Amino acid sequence: MSQATLTRRGFLKSSAAMGAVAALGISAADSLTAVDPAHADEAGEVKIIKTSCRACIASCAVLAHVRDGRVVKIEGNPESPMSQGGVCAKGLAGIQALYHPNRNKYPMRRVGERGTNQWERISWADALTEVATKINEVSDKYGSEAISVSTGGGGNPHFSNVKRFGEAINTPNVWEPGCSQCYLPRMGASLLAYGAGKPNNLSFSDSNGWDYYYTDSPVTSLVLWGTDPSNSSVATGGRALAELRNRPEGLRTVVIDPRYTLDAAKAEVWLPIRPGTDAALLLTWTRWILENEKYDEEFCRTWTNMPYLINPETRLTLKATEAGLPGTDEDYVIWDPASNAPVVVTYPFNEGVAAPLFGTFEVNGMQCPTGGQLLKESCEEWTLEKGAEICWLDAGQIERALEIYTDPNGQSGIMQGVCIDQYVQSQQCALGALNLEFLMGNVEKPGTMLQKFAPAPCKDQLGNTPRLLSKEKVMKRCGTIEHKGILCWDMAHIPSVFKAMKDGDPYQIHMWIERSGNKHVVLGNSSCLDEIVPKLDYVVQCFMYPTAFSVLCADLLLPTTEWLETNLTIPQLNTIVMRQAVTHLFETVEEGIIWTQIVQKCAELGNEHCPKAFDEAACMTTPFYKNEYEKQKQHLNKLEMSWEDACEQGVIQWATPEEYRTYQTYLADDPENPGKPKGFGTPSKKLEVYCESNIILGRTGAPWSQCAEEAPLVLPPASADYEPLCYYQEPAESPLTDTEYPLVLTEGRLPMYHHGTLRNIPYLREIYPVPEMWIHPADAEKYGIADGQWVNIESRRGKTHGMAHVTTAIAKGVVYQERFWAPELLDSDDPAQAYKVMNINVLTKNDPPYNPEYGTYTLRGFQVKVSPSDDEILDSVWVRPEQFQPWMPAPSDATEDVFDYGA
Amino acid sequence: MARNCIVVNLDRCTGCFGCEVACKMENGVALGERWSKVLTVGPVGEYPDMTRYALPTMCQQCENAPCVSVCPTGASYRDEDGVVLVDKEKCIGCKYCMMACPYGVRSWNAAEKCVEKCTLCGHLTSQDKLPACVKSCAAGARFYGDLDDPNSDASKELAKYDAAEIHTLQDVGNAPATRYIMTSMIGQWQERVEPKGHPHTAASPVAE
Amino acid sequence: MEIQWSLVLFTALSGAGAWLVACAGLDAFRGLARKTVVPAVICGIALIIVGGIASATHLSHVDRIMAVLAHPAPGIFLEALLLGIDVVVAAAFLVLYKREASAGALKVLGVVAVAMAAIFSYSCGSSYMMASQLAWNTVALPLGYLGGAMASGTALWYVLCAVRREEAQALSFAALETLVGSVAALVTALVYGAASGVMGGDASVLFWLGVVICGGVAPLACAVTGLKKTEGALPLAVVAAAGALIGSVAYRVLMWTASVALMSLFGVGI
Asked: Touching check for B175 and chain C: CB below 8 Å?
């Protein structure tokens, strides 16, 4: 550390006084933290409070031991049916996060230039007035779409509230770096093809696969496709797999991952796939299943649209009117081999008609293939050998995996991880994997991944208010005419937002309100912010502690709560796990309360749109809450308990496991159509193997486009049709052709961190102080890399560093490194190094090509090169455990909440 | 005498490092020091026959504990329940026990200038609570109890497995009590391993 | 492991001191070096005590040292006990010698002094024999401790005899004693080098140069020369003693640097 740094750090001492200037960074406890050293030694009575962790999305139930208002211990609460008393390193270190000496404690206003890290404390009243005034000014001057709002998955967020906030201040430009790059593709594909929403898709770590939390589930094998539950959902998903494997009958697993993860190490077959080629392997599997007739023919005929004839002119299912048959333009058509003629589908199926799944038939002068036929053609070239060649796999091992997955005596399922959400083929991979499950009939049976179990009476996400936005505003949402899939989450396309911020195209965005940890760590090609942020007039950040974004970009910092200071209801299987504030520190405020306070202040200062956010008629759904009390009521929803009673109980069983585990819901009687089964939530009530809904989405925005005036709102078509079936596209940067950057990069979760968070937690950083760059011994030798050595990693976007871990746990030709940053460099002479020095997202791509549906950019499966490094900056990165001493917790007494509870 | 110890089921362990943090939080272990540490062994072998597993380590509660026999002051001792402990008041800091420990799982408390180690959370077990690492183990992979008591959690877990699936770290006459369960699902048990060294958490087997 | 200099100096100095006393004790049988016995015993006692003090600097809580005496056990207690006994034996020998006690009594104490030197210097090494330390867990290790102490003790005796200008016969006998000591050092070092593998490992340079050449070959060559050449014995004796002490220290240093732990799972250095 330079002398200059040390001197500046000294300012922290004086920041107690309102208005005094301070730097945010690496310092030990400053005088803002009212620490009474003797306090911790007092033997007050310990109260054990049931709450739940939010160090990651798993929300494991914990017991917080509180003595004299201070949290002294965290342990697992065995009452949760998911985590069963387990807590991972992240949760156990919650006290270090809560009492981190560098917590953002008060609203802070930047003084001096951005990047100089000089701040003054201001009051919440001043902060709210300042933000609201800016919002109103920008809205009046440029239009409210000139304000962009963002969030992220790390650091105790509440996704839907940020959308409500955007809608309340009348901007469509709300976004988060997950979304198109995390979870939305898998969820969106499931909505379109399966007709089932958020909790019903192939993502296990986003808390799906409910049946697998019960050891009596008849599941016999699982395919972990680019997912590592042991790392990404340690005490829930990881635990569930441990329990299933540990049954007397065990659990056979296949792991498809470039890394030999600990889940892979327990698998019967490990397929170390080349990053970016998942679609090729999905097509290979599809072809093998069709060719070897491993699919469930009866299920496919009855419950998928495989036998439905497709109109080659519209590319959509052939309708009765188009076939010249009696019926409407909503009636589907199949081929009847007995009469050798097309017949109209009588829902649920035509008794006695063995409609072929494959084949092309002449109807009304058109050559109409079945949906199944088009599926078959889509994978025709993908033999085992071709798949093996493209994916860098062994054909024999692929076949072994397939035999496990299709074992006729077993029940299998696919868990599909985030990897496929992180490059151009996101929707294709999601649809491709769903189709494997559909072909195998792995739908809502005991032991299948896809389930629609009974919904909990409470809500964790409150939902947003998309119909607050007028058609004019919706049409101005950046990038969503081309990438309509993002409308599923009512969000905007990040590269398009950035284009507006940077180039004023199609209009200039002037203001950015950001709630998350460190956008520099999680955004693709994050150095692009260097050019973008100077174009912005005003940037607000809400978070728990300062990050690179705070120092480099923010003009105003609003302090948010840690999970130990937060209230929420969390559905977990047949229970509800309560999160309750066990303490409150300084002037931190839960983000939802910040949002509603800003909206109320905007309204008070004359914003005409903002009052609508609190008006049920204008929202056409539950309006925004005004305070914590109303918020809690909305979360409790149909749970007929007071908040206090619910918290007292901590883990509430609202149904027995038997009542909760509702299988084959599509066979249940349809109340709107008595005597008929409900079917699936697609237009055809069938599983869309041939996903025509994807085509319709691209052409019109249905089923997700809506606005204040219209629902559905028909949008102009995208530049090209979205494809109804999975296809393979070689990554834009490919090892097959790239000679300058020869290695493929992949990322992947670590069990002790979540997203960009927790790199400032001493007990976690000492375990994993710097990111490991895994490289195969053959590649290490080729590029002169020794184990334990710092390396340069470079792509066409930039350069960063990692510490080499030479291991056969990574596929040849592939390197692996996870996102990282160095909070210790925030208060240095070059704070940008905090995010640049060892952050893989300096290398990732946010330029085209994008996924057509969601605009997904490329975070994995692009090209890098590596070389040994002796860059001087690496000496400033903290590696030795004792270096983290300044971040050890500085416990302090609880304070009153900043805003009224409201009851 | 009772043989209280931790039993770890490596088939279940996911390598999350939770036990390491639980231990540090519970016992206030300083940065850079630890009573419990998770290593990741391997990969060993060639694709597709490879072995890699997490190996949580801590005091192995040896029956013939060398640390106790070499201690010049009796600071390292075995209590009435057979638990190997350190009486820090008696430790003169000769580090003889650290040399004698076959596994290197004793820790030097730099602040107090004495040796310390896993206590099996005696302050908790004496109140019928579980050791912190066992209580919060995210994978349900850790079990505490007396190997001589068939009703202990540790014994009950071991009883589910064949002898060939139950392992100890290499025994050089010290008779470690701690048992590791690992079946062929994971691969080949490595009885002697060596950490790569900080900052990596990986370890490799040592060829005999 | 880190080189524990306190412990290196402890066993090197105390061991040499014990063997110096032993040489003086042996003189009770021959009576050749009457001018040297008293300064030798005083030097011996001083070396033993300085070594003992050096060992205490290794401890972080010397204040609790009395706990050692309350806990009889092999290792440190035994070493401390033997060190104490050896000092008592040396002091008793000195007192009796000064008071010109009977030759029989001196001979008895002389034998005891030799035995104590052997037992003490061996025991200091045997404390390190432990199953956890693969390069230490051989009887060759304490034998090497004994050998090095013997070579340096006898060579120091040789130096003192030369300094005190003893008769040729005395010098020649001192050279013979040094010869025996250095052969012991050489042989035990080679045996340990082979048994532990250090002769071929990373530390082979230190082993061959420091332990074998300086600690064994050099004093041996000086001693062989000194058997006949009693004129100008001092330089020979000094070289022999310096070599033996360097070898003794090198051997102990080598023990730390070449240690092989069965496992060091926490990766904590000592």
From this structure: no
* Interface probe with B: pick from A233, A256, A767, A806, most Cβ of B within 10 Å: A767
**Predicted local distance difference test score (pLDDT) of residue A19:** 53
Q: Give me the total of CB pairs closer than 8 Å, taking one residue from chain B and one from chain C.
A: 122
Phi-psi region of C183 (alpha: psi -120 to 50; beta: other; left: phi over 0): alpha
Q: Do B47 and A752 touch (CB under 8 A)?
A: no
Fold classification of A3-98 is N-terminal domain of TfIIb (2.20.25)
Domains assigned to chain B: 4-205 (3.30.70.20)
CATH 3.40.50.740 region(s) of chain A? 108-181+469-567+582-657
Which chain C positions have a beta carbon within 8 Å of B192's beta carbon? 262-263
For the entire predicted model, the pTM comes to 0.94
Position C244, amino acid: A
- Helices C5-30 and C140-163 pack at an angle, to 10 degrees, of 60
The amino acid at residue A675 is: G
Choices 2.60.120.10, 3.40.50.10860, 3.40.50.740, 3.40.50.10540: CATH for A108-181+469-567+582-657: 3.40.50.740
* b (16+ CB within 10 A) / e for A243-270: bbbbeeeebbbbbbbbbbbbbbbbbbbb
- Tell me the one-letter amino acid at A879: V
Residue B97 contacts C, CB cutoff 8 Å: no
Question: Which residues of chain B make contact with A759, given a CB cutoff of 8 A?
Answer: none
| Beta-carbon separation of C67 and B92 below 8 A | yes
CATH of domain A743-887: 2.40.40.20
pLDDT at B208 (0 to 100)? 65
- pLDDT, tens digit, for every residue of A298-317? 999 999 999 999 999 999 99
Distance CA A347, CA A349 (A): 5
Instruction: Classify residue A755 as exposed, middle or buried by CB count within 10 Å of its CB (0-12, 13-18, 19+).
Output: buried
Which has the higher per-residue pLDDT, A26 or A899? A899
Mean pLDDT per 10-residue interval, chain C, length 270 residues: 94 97 94 92 97 92 87 85 95 94 92 97 95 95 97 97 93 96 97 91 90 96 93 94 97 94 90
In A169-247 the beta strands, taken as DSSP E runs, fall at 174-175, 221-225
Q: Which amino acid is at C187?
A: V
**Above 50 in pLDDT, residue A863?**
yes
Look at residue A903 in the predicted model and tell me its pLDDT: 81
Looking at the domain that runs over A188-292+379-439, which CATH code has it been given? 3.40.228.10
CB contact, 8 Å: B124 with chain A? no
Q: A90 to chain B, minimum CA–CA distance in Å?
A: 8
Contacts of B59 in chain C (CB under 8 A): none
User: What would the DSSP string read from start to end of A119-137?
Assistant: EEE--HHHHHHHHHHHHHH
Domain with CATH 2.40.40.20 in chain A: 743-887
| Chain B residues within an 8 Å CB radius of A767 | 17, 20-21, 201
pLDDT digits (tens, 9 = 90+) for A369-388: 999 999 999 999 999 999 99
C205 touches chain B (CB under 8 A): no
H-type alpha helices, A45-143 = 89-92, 94-98, 124-142
Interface mutation target, options B41, B73, B91, B109, chain C, most CBs of C under 10 Å:
B73
* Of residues A106, A234, A73, the one with CA closest to residue A889: A73
From the list C61, C71, C132, the residue facing B101 with the nearest CB is C132
The full DSSP string for A494-507 is HHHHHHHHHH-SSS
Q: Is the pLDDT of residue A881 over 80?
A: yes
The pLDDT tens digits of the residues spanning A21-48 come to: 666 654 433 433 344 444 445 568 999 9
